[in-house]
Amino acid sequence: MNTLMLNNLNNQIQPSSLYETVLFAANTALLVSLVCITASILISYPFAEYFSIAVQVSAHIGTIVIAAILKVSYVLRCVAQHGLGQEVR
Fold first, then answer.
1. Distance (Å, rounded) from C-alpha 56 to C-alpha 31?
2. Which of 9, 17, 26, 70 could cysteine-pair with 77, CB 3.0–4.6 Å?
3. C-alpha 27: how far from its chain's center?
4. 0.85 exceeded by the pTM?
């Protein structure tokens, strides 16, 4: 019974709409991660004197984690563009 439900679900999703959804999600993740990494770098370095040591440590760790998220979202964006037949940049 579960297999039948999965097959029906897979037939409803068109590949191009899946790539469009992934492209939208990747673009959104890129934008959010860009804002977050900018904030964490600003907290870590030029404005460090205004924040506690715990916030500074969190910002330094966040910079590494957010950079990874930014890279993964860029790869997802490239995959979606390739799937849609767009130029991958």
1. 23
2. 26
3. 7
4. no
Closest C-alpha among 38, 18, 28 to residue 82 = 18
Q: Which residues, other chains included, contact 80 with Cβ-Cβ below 8 Å and sequence gap of 6+? A: 19, 20, 22, 23, 26
pLDDT, tens digit, for every residue of 25-77? 999 999 999 999 999 999 999 999 999 999 999 999 999 999 999 999 999 99
Taken as a whole, the chain contains a residue count of 89
Instruction: Of 80, 74, 60, give the one whose Cα is nearest residue 17.
Output: 80
* Long-range interactions of 4-13: CB distance < 8 A, separation 24+: none
- How is residue 82 written in tokens? 């390739």
Q: Give the integer Cα–Cα distance in Å for 66 and 38.
A: 10
Phi, psi at 4, each rounded to 5°: -65, -40
